[in-house]
């Protein structure tokens, strides 16, 4: 196994990021990492060629910490992947549904099953990741504790699935981005392109309104815009944005020029082909 054929993900074998790696790059070997920082380091240090990074979920929203970590990772976004998420309620073999009192999983998975868990009278317990929760209950062999994880995790850790498709919404989908040491430059003539970037606006009235005005006047679609606090200062916000378009296109160039005029910093995280799911969700 060479690093060029390895894709890293955060979590244990059987995590949803593991499934996304298999779906998007079935020919590559996967490298489980304890934390997001370890995952990014694996790519920077040459242990892996790519990293599969969860960004947001259609039910639970933004994945915590990712927007802080990506700009400082030193890596570039080269692709995106939308992965349908089906949560399974599992427990050690021989457990009946009535035996369960508590369920362990990642905070995102628990949030995506909140209503179902409440209806079943089960207490959610937050753990670092989904597959890790499955591994924990397999070791504990306590029939009162279950886990929410993937069907792959149940298979790997020898658990029974007591209830399938626990997610509250049928559209439950996670968006991942794929990051690499080197950027790519896709040709917009070959299909839709997405550009991701972060920026900080100047501390003047209506700065954000003025900074984004160029996208409106130049007909650029902003598909995502989020702000988050930096360094614990509530007046120091950074914005993460996705737009449809390539920085070499004249309309995008003009919009970025206007953005730069009203911003203290603009940093492109990646330019990459749009996943077909964007315009044809299934």
From TrEMBL:
Residues 196-273 form the ACT domain. Pathway: Amino-acid biosynthesis; L-phenylalanine biosynthesis; phenylpyruvate from prephenate: step 1/1. PROSITE patterns: ACT (PS51671), PREPHENATE_DEHYDR_1 (PS00857), PREPHENATE_DEHYDR_3 (PS51171). Coiled coil: none annotated. Residues 6-181 form the Prephenate dehydratase domain. GO terms for molecular function: prephenate dehydratase activity. Gene3D superfamilies: 3.30.70.260, Periplasmic binding protein-like II. Keywords: Amino-acid biosynthesis, Aromatic amino acid biosynthesis, Lyase, Phenylalanine biosynthesis. InterPro entries: ACT-like_dom_sf, ACT_dom, Chor_mutase/pphenate_deHydtase, Preph_deHydtase, Preph_deHydtase_CS. The keyword S-adenosyl-L-methionine does not apply. It catalyses: prephenate + H(+) = 3-phenylpyruvate + CO2 + H2O. The keyword Magnesium does not apply. It comes from the Bacteria. It holds the Pfam family PDT. Its EC number is 4.2.1.51. This is prephenate dehydratase. It comes from Dongia sedimenti.
């Amino acid at each position: 196994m060479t690093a060029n054929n390895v894709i890293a993900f955060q979590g244990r074998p059987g995590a949803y990021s593991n499934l996304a790696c298999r779906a998007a790059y079935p020919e590559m070997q996967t490298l489980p990492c304890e934390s997001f920082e370890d995952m990014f380091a694996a790519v920077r240090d040459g242990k892996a060629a790519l990293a599969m990074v969860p960004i947001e979920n259609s039910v639970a929203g933004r994945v915590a910490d990712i927007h802080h970590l990506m700009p400082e990772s030193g890596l570039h976004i080269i692709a995106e992947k939308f992965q349908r998420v089906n949560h399974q309620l599992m427990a050690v073999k021989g457990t009946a549904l009535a035996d369960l009192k508590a369920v362990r999983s990642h905070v995102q998975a628990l949030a995506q099953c909140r209503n179902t868990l409440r209806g079943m009278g089960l207490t959610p317990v937050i753990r670092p990741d989904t597959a890790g929760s499955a591994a924990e209950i397999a070791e504990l062999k306590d029939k009162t504790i279950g886990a929410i994880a993937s069907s792959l995790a149940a298979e790997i850790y020898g658990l029974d699935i007591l209830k399938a498709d626990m997610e509250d919404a049928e559209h439950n989908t996670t968006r991942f981005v794929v990051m690499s040491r080197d950027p790519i430059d896709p040709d917009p003539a070959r299909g839709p392109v997405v550009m991701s970037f972060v920026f900080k606006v100047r501390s003047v009235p209506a700065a954000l309104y003025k900074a984004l005005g160029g996208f409106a006047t130049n007909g650029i679609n902003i598909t995502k815009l989020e702000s988050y606090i930096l360094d614990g200062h509530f007046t120091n916000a950074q914005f993460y944005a996705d737009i449809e378009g390539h920085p070499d296109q004249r309309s995008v160039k003009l919009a970025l020029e206007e953005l730069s005029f009203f911003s203290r910093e603009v940093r492109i995280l990646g330019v990459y082909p749009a996943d077909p799911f964007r315009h044809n969700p299934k």
